[in-house]
From TrEMBL:
GO biological process: gamma-tubulin complex localization; microtubule nucleation by interphase microtubule organizing center; mitotic spindle assembly
Main localization, broad class: cytoplasm
Subunit structure: Part of the gamma-tubulin complex.
Keywords: Cytoplasm, Cytoskeleton
UniProt cross-references to PANTHER family, sorted A to Z: MITOTIC-SPINDLE ORGANIZING PROTEIN 1 (PTHR28520:SF2)
Lineage of the organism: Eukaryota, Fungi, Dikarya, Ascomycota, Pezizomycotina
Similarity comment text for this entry: Belongs to the MOZART1 family.
Membrane spanning stretches: none
Organism: Aspergillus avenaceus
Cellular component terms per the entry's GO annotation: gamma-tubulin ring complex; interphase microtubule organizing center; mitotic spindle pole body; spindle
InterPro entries the record matches: MZT1 (IPR022214)
Protein origin, superkingdom: Eukaryota
Purpose of the protein: Required for gamma-tubulin complex recruitment to the microtubule organizing center (MTOC).
Protein's cellular compartments: Cytoplasm, Cytoskeleton, Microtubule organizing center, Spindle pole body
Protein's name in the database: Mitotic-spindle organizing protein 1
């Protein structure tokens, strides 16, 4: 017989599955783990708009670093 914690885990999985479907439709490139971490941060008081801004900034920085590395490798 499923316990209450099993039911909670199953409900959490279903929520993440739905969020992942929405995320895929919106082309956010967030996997289930990323989404789960974001949900946890928001549930613990992190401002969703601030979190979205940080994710965008980190992606921009990653792209810039990748380009710099690629340019450096190309120059060799």
């Amino acid at each position: 017989m499923p316990t209450q914690s099993d039911d909670k885990r199953q409900a959490a999985r279903e929520v993440i599955d739905i969020l992942h479907e929405i995320s895929t439709l919106l082309n956010t490139n967030l996997d289930r783990t990323d989404l789960s971490l974001c949900v946890s941060l928001i549930e613990n008081g992190v401002n969703p708009d601030a979190l979205a801004t940080i994710i965008k900034d980190l992606r921009r920085e990653d792209t810039a670093i990748s380009r710099t590395v690629a340019d450096h490798e190309f120059a060799k």
